[in-house]
Amino acid sequence: MAAPTPHPLAAARHAAGKTMDQFVAGIHDAAARRGLQSGTDEARVRKWQRGVRPNEESQIYIAEALGWPADIVRADDWPNWLPLTANGVIPFGPHSSVPALREALLTAMERRTFLSISSTALTALAADWAAGSHDTLAQAHDGKPVGEDLVAFLEASTQHLANLPTEQRQHTPALLDAHLATVTELLERGRCTRAIRLRLHTLAASLAQTVAWHRFDLGHHANASQHWVAGLHNAHAVGDRDMGAGLLGDLAYQAAWRGQHTTAAHILEHALTRAENPAARCLLQLRLARTLAARRDPTERRTVLRALAAAEQHLNDAGTDRPTWCAWVSEADLAVDSGQALLELGDTGRAHQLIAEGELLLPTARDKTRGVFLTYRAASHLDQKEPEPAAAAANEALLLARRIGAPRCVRLIDDLLPRFQPYARAQGVPDLLHLAAV
User: What is the pTM of this model?
Assistant: First the structure.
């Protein structure tokens, strides 16, 4: 029989590395800073851990004793507001999937954005996942029954939201959040068969991944990473190795976006140890090539080229049986990502050609990706001191990004604007600068 789940207060105290004596002392110190005294002792803490609710004042002291700011407290939602981890990562375990989801949902609140995940913690999580020695599917609960019809509705409606045109998906984040909160509640409190529980974990992983990308596009990185980690726990719970590898690939993409290329490379190397589907491996190899090339280390040139060759071979091997999260990987992605990697390696002529080819191959349904590709093309033109076509590509990308609600693409263009300043009189550049300023 599995060990009982510890009370969130006990879990939070252990995550913070506090002994009972240290924790009680921290509560006394928090009260003293306000010129007050607290009568909290070990016996009272144990009562809280058995279900007695501390008053709001005590909850504030608890937060500070654990090293968190007082404004994290939501006294009416005790003990759910308690952080369950000190480094932002819930470790894998038989009951880790729901706490990871809860951590992601709570991090969505502004007061939880400080709960960022360090590069060391992310790399360690990826290594732990790659070890693959956990059985993380918890037993069913004794709560209210969860039926087939409800789960089927959640699956179908989630799929419908995911299939909306790009321009319409900008209106769906609140619906996706609600779906994920519902699935989390069902996993935590629902009673269902093993088959339905597997479907709920799978749906949780997919929803968490989609929500993470929405947060990432908005620049909410702490929340995005928590959702990707939550998705990883749920994919791991059902033994979906490709989905898990994909979620690690997303975390690596975020790390690379933030300039943490060594962290990204380590995560991708762990992900590739267990990914099986050729389309999944293609995407991971492309991201590995991109992040290694971005380090601009001449000694890694061959490694970059090997990763690009592996990605091409995997794409050739990929059939129609692909995981949903990487079903879109195509010749267009291979061309553009290869071009971007070659651009970092200094092969600008071939890079420009590949980026242009990839953009032409991209289907109209992928407007957000088209906007990103256009910014890549603009950058490659600037590398070749061609401001006119660069301005045309950036102008098109900016108009597209604003229409479909793609703030990440807008930020890419903003980052390019200083490079246009030396060409302020070139054709199209004044119009671009004016559009960007509006």
Answer: 0.82
